[in-house]
Every structure is written in structure tokens, then in C-alpha cells.
Amino acid sequence: MIRAAFFVTQDDRLLGFHIKGHSGYDESGKDIICAFVSSAAYLSANTITDVIGIRAEVFDQDGEMFLRVDKKDADPCQTILKGLRLHLLGTEEQYPQYLKVTFTEV
User: Fold this and answer.
1) What range does the domain containing 70 cover?
2) pLDDT of residue 62
3) pTM score
4) Residue 21 and residue 69: Cα distance in Å, rounded?
5) Using an 8 Å Cβ cutoff, are 57 and 66 in contact?
6) What does the alpha-carbon distance between residue 49 and residue 1 come to, in Å, rounded to a whole number?
7) How many independent structural domains does the chain possess?
8) Ramachandran sector of residue 30 (left: φ over 0; alpha: ψ -120 to 50; beta: rest)
9) CA 83 to CA 43: how far, in whole Å?
10) Which of these, 24, 50, 56, lies nearest to 37 by C-alpha position?
């Protein structure tokens, strides 16, 4: 199962995400759920760091991706992170046995 945790402040500002695991929907290279989540996460991370130019703490290795921005840099990232949240929640609704989305207050 893929586990996606969003880092959220008390005032509902998103600061990033931690996505880990493999869905198990299909074998490696054919798993549409893993591809879907990975593509959305990469698009979000690359847009935040390379397009908007926000300095973020980023980790990406072996089925795990982590991105976190400082509170002072959160505002320009909200549209992207909220889009990712909506995207993953919709996927979780369709495939609850393969993806779990949670929220961690920071």
C-alpha cells in the first residue's frame, strides 16, 4: 500500500508531503496506481522547486518521496499542494486498498 502523509499547519496551510510504499495493484512497470501517484508527486515537487523556485527539503529514493517547505515559503505552494491533496484523495476514494492519505499537524 502507498501511504501519503501531508504536513499541515493549524491554520490548514500545507507544508509538504511524505509518500512511501508500493501499491501492489500490479507488478512493477505495470502498476498504474504507483505510476499515477509518482507522476503527481514529481509534478508537484518539480513545480515547487524548479518552476516557482522555492527552497525545500526534498528526498526521493526507492519508492519514497519527501518534500517540505518552510512556513515562510508556504503561500506560493498552496495551489500546487492543494491540487496534489485533491488528486490523491480522489485516487484513495477509487482505490482505498492501494492508497492511504493522512494528515500530520506540524
Assistant:
1) 2-105
2) 86
3) 0.94
4) 22
5) yes
6) 27
7) 1
8) alpha
9) 11
10) 24
Q: What is the mean pLDDT of residues 23-39?
A: 94
Question: Reduced to 3 states, what is the DSSP secondary structure of residue 65?
Answer: strand
Question: Beta strand 64-69 with 2-8: parallel, antiparallel or unpaired?
Answer: unpaired
CATH number, residue 62 = 3.30.70.1490
pLDDT tens digits for 42-62? 999 999 999 999 999 999 998
Cell numbers for 57, please give them. Answer: 527539503
pLDDT at res. 63: 87
Residue type at 61 in one-letter notation: Q
Q: 1 CB contacts (<8 Å, ≥6 apart)?
A: 21, 23, 24, 97, 98, 99, 100
pLDDT band at 76 (very low <50, low <70, confident <90, very high): very high
Provide the edge-to-edge strand list for the sheet that holds 14-20.
56-61, 64-69, 14-20, 2-8, 99-105
Q: How far apart are CA 86 and CA 89, in angstroms?
A: 5
